[in-house]
């Protein structure tokens, strides 16, 4: 499995593994490197937003021409796309699954959706091209809460065991809390802890936060006719990464910034 256990995630603890991990943490995924990839991240997310806009224009053109033969739904699942192999498998599925879960929870919780969208639109007004997610405090809480309820890689201890009403999606629980992603709060370990802690924490969070901010900024999202928000399906797919079992079908409506 995985090149005879020579990749980082599955290799035994030895000098080789130590070196691999060092390369990942210091050379590939350091905070400095993650920051330096910012413009690439921005370009990639812009391509995603542009493709949803193009699809919307195409579908509204089809509807105006009276054609009913084109699908009117898009899916956030479709929006998603020895060391390097780890980076791709450990990095891509976890991040896209986190975005998918976040959108599902936001659709189930209109109060939170309204609040996070208001923040994103107020903070990013006029800065859509050069986005800095630093000021998006509530969005960060939404991501944190998503990773609490739906950790893409559940570690060996129960990461669901956090305090009271664990089933409720309530980002405010992290407000003024010192619980972080660094593996020191044992009731909250979406990135693991100790010497196995995910080396892609910064990279993962940067991708999830930026993608989510853009998706929420540019579109209003609604559920297909006949589905109401408590019915959004949260069934999990079994696997190394816990993704949603069924596609999340959502209808986007283009948001036009009133000041433009
Ligand atoms: C939201 C995004 C992500 C989450 C929630 C996540 C979560 C995790 C968790 C819980 C582990 C530890 C599993 C264990 O205890 O053995 C892990 C390991 C790992 N992650 Fe991530 N991850 C994410 C994104 C990324 C990204 C973006 C990359 C790289 C680009 C990455 C690369 C890795 C690697 C290489 C390991 C294995 C580390 C080792 O065994 O020493 N992850 N991840």
TrEMBL record:
Annotated GO CC locations: membrane
Compartments in which it is found: Membrane
Cofactor requirements of the protein: heme
Membrane topology: Single-pass type II membrane protein
GO molecular function: heme binding; iron ion binding; monooxygenase activity; oxidoreductase activity; oxidoreductase activity, acting on paired donors, with incorporation or reduction of molecular oxygen
Annotated positions binding heme: 198
Superkingdom classification of source: Eukaryota
UniProt-listed InterPro entries: CYP450_71D, Cyt_P450, Cyt_P450_CS, Cyt_P450_E_grp-I, Cyt_P450_sf
Keyword field: Heme, Iron, Metal-binding, Monooxygenase, Oxidoreductase, Signal-anchor, Transmembrane
Family affiliation: Belongs to the cytochrome P450 family.
Name of the featured protein: Cytochrome P450
Organism: Erythranthe guttata (Yellow monkey flower)
């Amino acid at each position: 499995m995985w090149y005879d256990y020579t990749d980082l995630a599955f290799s035994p603890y030895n000098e080789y593994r130590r070196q691999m991990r060092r390369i990942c943490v210091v050379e590939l995924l350091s905070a400095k490197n993650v920051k330096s990839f910012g413009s690439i991240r921005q370009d990639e997310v812009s391509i995603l937003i542009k493709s949803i806009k193009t699809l919307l224009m195409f579908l509204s053109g089809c509807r105006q021409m009276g054609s009913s033969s084109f699908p009117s739904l898009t899916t956030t699942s479709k929006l998603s796309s020895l060391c390097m192999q780890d980076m791709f498998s450990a990095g891509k599925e976890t991040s896209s699954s986190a975005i998918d879960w976040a959108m599902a929870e936001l659709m189930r919780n209109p109060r939170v959706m309204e609040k996070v969208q208001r923040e994103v639109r107020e903070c990013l007004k006029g800065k859509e091209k050069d986005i800095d997610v630093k000021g998006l405090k509530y969005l960060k809480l939404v991501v944190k809460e998503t990773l609490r309820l739906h950790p893409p890689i559940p570690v060996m201890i129960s990461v669901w065991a956090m305090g009271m009403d664990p089933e409720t999606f309530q980002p405010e629980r992290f407000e003024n809390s010192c619980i972080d992603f660094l593996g020191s709060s044992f009731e909250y370990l979406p990135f693991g802890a100790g010497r196995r802690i995910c080396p892609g924490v910064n990279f993962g969070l940067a991708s999830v936060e930026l993608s989510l901010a853009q998706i929420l900024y540019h579109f209003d999202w609604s559920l297909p006719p006949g589905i109401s928000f408590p019915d959004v399906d949260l069934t999990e797919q079994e696997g190394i990464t816990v993704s949603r079992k069924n596609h999340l079908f959502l209808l986007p409506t283009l948001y036009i910034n009133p000041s433009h």
